[in-house]
Specification:
Length: about 60
């Protein structure tokens, strides 16, 4: 999607990860800019969204 950081681009994720805890997940749930609410997964629970965010962050290069 437009302006979405690639999972392998740690530098692009840095400003997102520097935000207060929960902000990144809140942006996914509510939508932000071009990103639609819940990333178009209207059937996903808040817990599933959180798990997806946690997974993506865990996959970033160290």
């Amino acid at each position: 999607m437009r302006n979405a950081p690639r999972l392998t681009d740690k530098a692009a994720w840095a400003p997102r990860l520097a935000q207060p805890p929960g902000t990144l997940t809140a942006h996914v749930i509510k939508g932000l800019g071009w990103m639609p609410p819940r990333g178009t997964c209207s059937a996903c629970s808040d817990e599933e969204i959180q798990a997806a965010v946690d997974y993506m962050v865990s996959r970033l290069p160290k």
